[in-house]
Amino acid sequence: MKKSTQAPTLHVLWSGWKLVILLSISLCLFALLRLHYQPMFPSSSSSSPYLEIYRARSRYLRHAGFVGNPKLAFLYLARRNLPLDFLWGSFFENADVANFSIYIHSEPGFVFDESTTRSHFFYGRQLGDSIQVAWGESSMIEAERLLFAAALEDPANQRFVLLSDSCVPLYNFSYIYNYLMASSRSFVDSFLDAKEGRYNPEMFPVIPKERWRKGSQWIALVRRHAEVVVDDEVVYPAFKKFCKRRPPVDASKGELNSKLQKQHNCIPDEHYVQTLLALNELETELERRTVTYTSWNQSATKMDTKGWHPVTFNYANASPRQIQGIKKINHVYYETEFRTEWCRANSSSVPCFLFARKFSKGAAMRLLSEGTVGRFDASSLLDSTP
Ligand SMILES: *[C@@H]1O[C@H](CO)[C@@H](O)[C@H](O)[C@H]1NC(C)=O
Ligand SMILES: *[C@@H]1O[C@H](CO)[C@@H](O)[C@H](O)[C@H]1NC(C)=O
Ligand SMILES: *[C@@H]1O[C@H](CO)[C@@H](O)[C@H](O)[C@H]1NC(C)=O
Ligand SMILES: *[C@@H]1O[C@H](CO)[C@@H](O)[C@H](O)[C@H]1NC(C)=O
Known about the structure:
It contains twelve helices and 15 strands. The protein is α/β, with parallel strands linked by helices. It has a domain of 245 residues. GO terms for molecular function: glycosyltransferase activity.
């Protein structure tokens, strides 16, 4: 009797367990599938959930409370050597070595020493972990990030200015130092990019279109923003994947060529930092302009994108009048936003530009002889001319 009553109970119990096990397995499977297919980002356009993700990790020691002499870090993105090292050497001669530091990203293996540079300030200042850079591709922003990372290692570095190998200073060291140190804001050229098709919708939701920005690659950052750039582990991978330069037309590739020509023609270095800072809701902490002047050749039509080249200054067109003209500029107009940016640093009116590109050796020679960077007193030169 006992057995016969026990058997059905056991049977019911066993079926119950089977159901529980089955349910658990399907729940697990469901959870796994959800994890796999659910987008990593919430689809709501409110920014707060994104912020958590952008600011996920901080690999770098924070030196917020740094006391001592703050340094201005000069970060050079070079192809190989620094052709204008003689001008920069003279510029740094007039500075206190305790007030600046130098980092160079050059091609891997390239060493700055007596045989490759005319200025001792650059000896051994190349990064040991530099990468091969393809101009206009995401390796360029990776190189920038390596420069910022190296410079962040020194807690004294409080301002960071990114320069190319064809950039020149327009003032002496103390003027540039005081200008940048006085500003608690970064200088990042940043504007809405309404007309061009560089934004790739596949970047969504990591990069929503309303936060997509364009601007000059040549930036000057405060330490906090340099940390945001180096800490970023979310926006950079999205750039790497979806912001690519369109390769030149190559008919021999046939089908592949027409496919490539349809993709968004994106130039990562003209978007990355400005978009990253916009995503981090840091635009209120920026002067939304660059401190590095570029002269654009506007004679070419807008359709002919090859004509939109920076003009290279040579000996002839780097005249004192030209340079004075650049130094007098006190505002910039942003067409896409109908915004006039009156140039300020720490709320005072200042000239917009501290640096300029692109300068040939001849043009840099002329700046040096005219005493733009200090050392050579222009008036004494003029006095001695008959
Ligand atoms: C170096 O910086 C300190 C203060 O930060 C300043 O007193 C000094 O004049 C600077 N030296 C030069 C050469 O700019
Ligand atoms: C640096 O340049 C500024 C502005 O051009 C000038 O007023 C100042 O006297 C210069 N300082 C030195 C040390 O040459
Ligand atoms: C900014 O300007 C204010 C007022 O003119 C001044 O008190 C302050 O010291 C300046 N800040 C820096 C960092 O120079
Ligand atoms: C501007 O571009 C035009 C056409 O591309 C070229 O002929 C001209 O030399 C350029 N001007 C300068 C100053 O580079």
